[in-house]
Each structure stands twice: as C-alpha cells, then as structure tokens.
Amino acid sequence: MATIQFKIFYGENFDRCKMYRMDKICLELATYEEFATAVLQTIGTYFQGKSPREVRIQYRDDEDTFVSLSSDSDLLDACRCLRPVPNTEDLYRLIIRVHGSATPVAAVSTEKTVAEKRRSILPPKQLNFQDSKLSFRNTSFPSSEPSKFRSPLDVFLDEKKKAVEAQKQQVANARASFSECELMCSASPDARNTRKPVLWQMPPRGTQQTEL
C-alpha cells in the first residue's frame, strides 16, 4: 500500500520542520478538516488553541508553487502533486507549509512595518535616503509614448497626400504664369493691336473653289 510522507514546515521563517505519514487511501478519503487537524497535532503546541480555519495550510504543486488548501477538492488536487521518494517503493512525499494566520499579510502593511523599524534604528541622514527610496518606488510614472508603427495604408495615404499637394502647387504656378502673361498682353499696345494671321478663310457664297 502506498504511503505519503508529509514534510511540514512552520515557524516565523518556516525554519521548523516535522514529518507525518499517512496511507494514500486515507488521504483520498479524508476531509480537509480531518487533514488540517492531523497537521496541527503533528506540529504540537506551536499553534496551540487554533482551529484548522484559523491557520493557512499550503502545499507545493508540480510547478513548485505553494497553493493554499481550504476545501476537500483542494485536498484532492494536492494528492495529484505527490512526488515519489527516490530509492523507495510506494513512498510519496508532499511539502506542506503552515502559516499562523488564515489570511496573508498585505505587502503594503509589511513595507510600512519595515519602514517604521528603520526609523527607530537608522541615523537621520540614512533615514532620509531610505525614505526617498521608498517614495521613489511608490511614484507612478507617466505612460510610455504611443507606438510609432505605421501600417502600409498610412504610408500609402501619406504618399497620395504629398502627390496631391505637388499637383496643387503645379496648378498654382501655372495660374500665376497665365496671369502674368495676361497682364503683359493688356499692358503692351503692340500686343493689344496685333491680330492673329488668318490661315484659312471660307470662300464667298456662289464662288467655286479652284483646285490647286
């Protein structure tokens, strides 16, 4: 029959450890309350007076992430993360951590506590430097500049706009040249009295056109 070896870490920095064994079939049939009670009994008087709901128990999964246990389904998930103990037969191990509080401590409150401890032991100059580091870390920076990526459609439209502007400039130059020519023609008497030569004229009625 397969046996599970629980390696239970507890303490302020999880520097304490105790071992507990249970048959695999018993773990699969146990409820979370029964399992948590067995863990607390193994630890002994360290969490004396606390119920299973007043502590937080975590197990290490197959990705080395510690996952909290709070229900029977969580306990079944933990059974799937058992690891065989090398050089043994039908012996599996599961790493367990036990916290003294059922809810995790917020990171902000922890940082505030550390800052208060520093104020009590650091000299004024070093204290100002440490506080400036904390305020700099909590400063929100403006968002980054928008992306300068331009799609093929944007490039095509820009080229067309440039072509239209160039054509507009050509039309404006042509109009300016035409206006200058009109002004010169209206100001010059020779140009005003000059008639264009007649290249061909319709023959009078009743006359026969002679072939050349």
TrEMBL record:
Give positions of region: Disordered: 192-212
Pfam name, any one: PB1
Q: Which InterPro entries match?
A: PB1-like, PB1_dom
Residues covered by the PB1 domain:
3-101
**What is the protein name given in its UniProt record?**
PB1 domain-containing protein
Which organism does this record belong to? Answer: Desmophyllum pertusum
